[in-house]
Design a protein that fits this description.
Jelly Rolls; eight-stranded antiparallel sheet; 34% helix; binds nickel (II) ion
Length: 226
């Protein structure tokens, strides 16, 4: 289950984010990688103590939280603070890896990474390479989105970022624990919600749409944890 959402950031937010990133320094991306991932990770990240980081995180989380498609795709229970990264020059790639299943949040609690999201921040024409390659049951999917757009995918999928051979690829990535742990159940809920949206647009709130909406919420009640 891999869902792309266009224009999560407004053009004003994108400009703000880029400005803040231009003002902040970069350190090795090794700081947040697990042991296996560290072997293949060669990029840069904004350091945790960067003064721009709280505002960057506020903008991105605010944009995601007002996006109904993001909500229904991820059903987020807890979202860990996003990281910002850069692929350019000799720090330009992140080989095939898996993300750690359990991640410490700021308050010392563990959060289970069910869903990962990557927000693209550079215009795709401005750099060469830098595809996010995700391996799902259907095979390899190469993702390179326009700036301000996001891809949401299960954290259990192996993935990599191919070498950036020209220009600079700025991005933001984050992990979240979903209310619905099982990827197949999340898929069913997502498909049903999308179909309901279509039905509602075509026919309005007719009794069968209301009834099916009840079924959606009953399934969510059955499967969600909070
Ligand atoms: Ni990863």
């Amino acid at each position: 289950m891999l869902i792309t959402i266009d224009d999560v950031l407004s053009s004003e937010e994108l400009a703000n984010v880029r400005g803040l990133l231009a003002d902040s320094g970069w350190v090795s991306g090794q700081v947040t990688a697990g042991a296996q991932a560290a072997l293949v990770k060669n990029n840069q990240q904004i350091p945790e103590d960067a003064p721009q980081l709280p505002e960057l995180r506020r903008i991105v989380l605010g944009a995601l939280q007002r996006n109904p498609l993001f909500f229904t795709a991820a059903l987020p229970l807890k979202i860990l603070p996003p990281f910002f990264n850069r692929y350019a020059g000799s720090s330009n790639t992140y080989g095939l890896h898996t993300d750690n299943a359990m991640r410490l949040s700021g308050d010392g609690q563990y959060v289970r990474a069910d869903v990962s999201a990557t927000l693209f921040l550079s215009d795709p024409e401005s750099y060469e390479g830098g595809e996010l390659v995700i391996q799902d049951a259907a095979g390899r999917r190469e993702i390179k989105l326009k700036a301000g757009s996001v891809v949401v995918y299960p954290s259990s999928y192996l993935h990599e970022v191919t070498p950036v051979t020209r220009g600079e690829r700025l991005g933001c990535f984050m992990f979240m624990q979903s209310m619905v742990r099982d990827v197949d159940q999340r898929r069913i809920l997502f498909d049903m919600d999308m179909a309901l949206l279509q039905l509602r647009q075509n026919f309005g709130e007719i009794p069968s749409v209301v009834s099916l909406t009840g079924v959606y919420h009953n399934l969510l009640r059955e499967w969600a944890e909070s």
